[in-house]
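dumping this here before i forget
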Amino acid sequence: MPERVVFDTNIWISGLLWRGKPYQCLTMARAALVQPIYCREMMAEFARKLRHPFAFTDSHVRTVLYQYRSISQRIDIPGALHGVVSDPDDDKFIECALVGHAGIIVSGDQHLLALGIYQDIDILTADAFVNRVLKEANR
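structure:
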């Protein structure tokens, strides 16, 4: 069974628009090497950011969200966690990982990355995540 992982919004957007490590993260998800999980709050943020500043049309946003939902599993969160004091908007990623039993959050957000680990959930950059998955795949 693939490892469950939460991708921060910045990973989804970077993976969609450019061909760097976030793109490799999403390629691994599409290949079912990992199992992305998300919550409604994460997808709402993703849609907002696609519209502004990236000027995606509503139709394009719906298409992108459909594609990502098709490779991910939805988790419902209560919205009660308050773990990221420096940026409470990031709490949804940690809460999704906790409720969804994910072992990893992948992010480019310094508020999350500064935590490093939260209740046994590793918080990694896209580069560290890709290296970890490739290392485990080569065992």
